[in-house]
Amino acid sequence: MKVTSGQRTRFLGRSPVIKGVNPSMASFLGGSVLSVTSSWPILPSIQLLANRSEYCIFSVAASPSSPATRHVSLASQVGESQVRSCTSPAGPVFRFYELHVQLADERVSVKPALINLFCPVGYFVLDGECAQCPRGPSGSSTSLDINASTIRSCVCDIGSYGTHGEFCVTCPKVSALNCSKVAMMLPQVNPGFYADFSKLKDCSWSRAECGAVTACPYGPRACPGGTELQCTQSPAECYQGWAVQSVAKCFFSKNHNVSHAPMQVSPYCC
To answer: How many alpha carbons lie under 13 Å from residue 83 in its C-beta half-sphere?
Structure first.
């Protein structure tokens, strides 16, 4: 039998049934890839017109605040014959998409699967809507979970440091510091540098200089990095911080031989 009209699809068999959708949630921004399990294959004896495609149909019922919408997404086979992938469109947050499938012979599922629309990572919930975590040249933040409850959920993103949201500050563009992780309260000091974060407020992402850090003449051996005010202090070697007049209360080595005399004046880190 050759199918030439949608009016004849009722003779091709029962309507398809959606057996499962993974995941069953999608971002309100769209772009979520869903794996839809259904009776996609049709009988091999049925001849179809060339280039007949399969689809996922996403619908949202009308509400007092928004009209009804309907989007059609091309379904692509990704592995098993019963599974197709579909990309969700953008939609109203905290509503549900009714998902139907349309087979290549134009049969459409009767009972829909429900797809919950959520606020994705990088957003938080504000007055029942999704708001993007503050981002800009002077500092960027992001949330780590979907449907983040408040702006305090927006921790500082990679490349920034601080508490949260609008209080995140872009890391100074100096080789001494890095902000390579999410949710950093302060920058990390790279090995070979010494830092005093009490002076960090005078540094800026837009300037190449930062008076809060300086290179150590003895390199990583004296300045291990990590956090501020770090100098190597061990029974083998002892270094002090910024060049201030003080006496080290630890041991240090002379010609690789450990001196056991305390209160020796040690070299400065920087």
So the answer is: 11
